[in-house]
Amino acid sequence: MHNSVESLSKAEVMSWLEDGRMSAPTALSHLAGEYSDAVCPDAGGYAPHNGTAESEQHQKSRGAVHSEGMRRLADLVGLESVKKSVREVLAYAYIQQRRTELQLRAQPLMLHSVFSGNPGTGKTTVARILAQIFHDIGVLEKGHLVEVERADIVGEYIGHTAQKMRRKVRESLGGMLFIDEAYSLARGGERDFGKEAIDAVVKAMEDRRDDFVLVLAGYTREMEWFLAQNPGLRSRCATHLVFPDYSTEELVRIAEIMLRRRQYHLSGRARTALWAAADRLQGREWGTGNARSMRNLLERAMRRQALRLLDSRRVNREELQKLRAEDFEEMEQ
Amino acid sequence: MRQKCAIVGSPGCGKTLLFRRILSQGSRCFAASDDIRVRENDNRRLPGTHSLQLRIAGSDGARREILIFDTPGLHDGIESCSRQREGADTIRLMASCDILLHIMDAARVGKSPHSQRFTRVDEAIYTFLHEANWPELRRVLGDRNRNELRNGWLQRLVPRGLRRRTVTNHAAEAPGVEAPLYFIGANKMDLPWSQAGYRCITEAHPEVIVIPLSARRGDGLQSLLHRIGDTKRGH
User: Fold this and answer.
1) Are A215 and A115 in contact (CB under 8 A)?
2) Residue B206 at interface with chain A, using a CB cutoff of 8 Å
3) CB contact under 8 A, A24 and B128
4) In angstroms, what separates the C-alpha of A188 from chain B's closest C-alpha?
5) Do residues A30 and A42 make contact, with C-beta atoms less than 8 angstroms apart?
6) Which residue numbers of A have CB closer than 8 Å to B's CBs?
7) For residue B186, which of B176, B177, B173, B195 has the smallest C-alpha distance?
8) CA B126, B131, B134, B136 torsion: positive or negative?
9) B91 phi and psi, to 5 degrees?
10) Are A175 and A73 in contact (CB under 8 A)?
11) B104, B122 Cβ separation under 8 angstroms
């Protein structure tokens, strides 16, 4: 690879021309021995002709597709369909970048998305990881996540809403704006200022399309209704990620990961009790077969364990880490 | 000795129509690539490079053989892969030809604002011709060109009956080391604004011979052919 344009030989100029890395007039000027200064009219701002910079940028963004953020995503339990869609979106974003580098026409990226799924199925977690990945591949400048809910963007008097919304959008520029329970914006009837917030969101999506990524998140059923009410929003969000409920196995694996992180472990009978508890969570009405109730269950078990150990004589390092079956059983009452 | 003349320019400046006009002069022309004969009266874009062999009498009475090449237009920007390859082929041809006929659309030059009179391609062709290190360019790009001739790159452009002879002759002809002769053809002189355009071109390039042409009406064709016929390499 060459460090700069000036060191290209004539034969290389021809191959650059054939590869579409250089336009015909530029190639002619090179052959005529001009461009000893590295200014290149084809560059258009991002200097693709600087060979080194290009390949570094390329490696960086390709690397990001396969590393840090992606590993964090892969580490999440379950969510296979979500992972697949995320990979799709990333591959698309990455390839569009490569196309721009090689002077092919690139489609504008449509990254705004809708996340729908029951509570505790990983919407916020995935959004946070996604923001980081977008930052790594260079789509988002900062890659931070601004999490807002109805109260943060809906104002109290006329005109207040748009003002609040604009402030939030400004905060999230270069990052991701995550509107949790987005359907609540459309609740509250005709007079509600939520409508105003939706209009402001749509406007921001159009005006600052490339500057931030909007994620509308909410429970499956409510989001369906919300998007049906606002066809404009639906069509502007290219990606719809549906977060399925976790199966019993997945819940148990999540619990094990949570416990390991907190330096707890299960006794043999406690493991059976945990399975039974996960199964019960799973079988219940919607909204409970999820990681958050699993976490609550574990936290209660930890509190039970604390209570149990308070009365106990021998408290050693081993006992402090162990959750027993009774810690799980008692809490079901 | 046969000389090669390449017709080059931006897209849409009338290269192919001019080429077809020369072709339809008929009697002078004794060989052309197969496909252009078929499509002589048709206005579609011809992909790739096409050649035409002419015998032209110069003013001194001597007849010369000229091989005229019609090339795809060179685009200002970066285009599809096939266009880029065509562009590269055109530039190689330019590096190996003896006469370079640079066609400009005089009507377009005439009505464009000052800064956009000449396309990037037009300016680049001019500087390419005048500032390139021609001996080196001939050596570097000419070699590739000769190899390609042997490999049949040009073979397809030559009528079947003439193929072998032409190709062997060609391969034997090493391109000269000097810059090719350069003419500008100011095309579309039948359109309004073209007079102003012609003036602009002559003012911008006072040392170059600018031939007014109208490929559509066939004006200026004779003087063009005489010009080409009069050229001798190596002076």
Assistant:
1) yes
2) no
3) no
4) 53
5) no
6) 9-11, 14, 17-29, 31-34, 41-42, 103
7) B195
8) negative
9) -65, -40
10) no
11) yes
Residue A311 carries which side chain, given as an amino acid letter? D
Interface contact flag, A14 B137, Cβ < 8 Å? no
Supply A261's token pair: 């992180």
Per the structure block, which two tokens stand in for A154?
């809906």
**Residue type at A221 in one-letter notation:** R
Cβ <8 Å between B127 and A29: yes
Find, among A260, A179, A241, the residue nearest to A213 by Cα. Answer: A179
Structure tokens at B90: 């055109």
Contact call for residues A163 and A132 (beta carbons, < 8 A): no
Give how far B149 is from chain A: nearest CA, Å. 17
Whole-number Cα distances in Å, A133 to A75, A91, B41, B58:
14, 11, 58, 70
d(CA A304, CA B200): 93
Least CB-CB distance to B76: which of A25, A29, A32?
A25
B135 touches A: beta carbon within 8 Å: no
Asked if A34's CB is within 8 angstroms of B131's CB, the reply is: yes
Check B141 against A33: CB less than 8 A apart: no
**For residue B10, which residues of chain A lie inside 8 Å, CB to CB?**
none
In sequence order, what DSSP letters do the residues of B141-181 get, joined into one string? HHHHHHHHHHTTTTGGGS-GGGHHHHHHHHHH-PPPSSPPE
Whether pLDDT at A70 is above 70: yes
When comparing pLDDT for B157 and A52, which is higher?
B157
Instruction: State how far residue A8 is from chain B, nearest Cα, in angstroms.
Output: 13
Chain B residues lying within 8 Å of A17, measured CB to CB: 84, 87-88, 91
**Per-residue pLDDT reduced to its tens digit, A82-103:** 888 888 888 888 888 778 777 7
* In the block, residue with structure tokens 């390609």: B148
> Which residue's structure tokens are 């002879």?
B165
Q: Which residue blocks in A102-219 are alpha helix, DSSP H?
A: 123-136, 150-153, 160-172, 194-207
Better-scored residue on pLDDT, B82 or A259: A259
Nearest to B178 by CA among B231, B124, B127, B138: B138
Least confident interval from A272-276, B93-97, B160-164, B211-215: B160-164
Q: For residue range B49-107, what is the model confidence (pLDDT) as tens digits?
A: 667 777 776 666 667 778 888 888 888 888 777 788 888 888 888 888 888 999 999 99
DSSP, residue by residue, A56-101: HHHHHHHHHHHSHHHHHHHHSSS-HHHHHHHHHHHHHHHHHHHHHH
**Measured CA distances, B226 to A98, A297, B230 (Å):** 51, 97, 6
DSSP A213-262: EEEEEE-HHHHHHHHHH-HHHHHH--EEEEEPPPPHHHHHHHHHHHHHHT
Question: Are residues A193 and A161 in contact, defined by beta-carbon separation less than 8 angstroms?
Answer: yes
In this prediction the ipTM stands at 0.74
pLDDT of residue A40 exceeding 60:
no
The shortest CB-CB distance from B75 to any of A9, A24, A34 is to A24
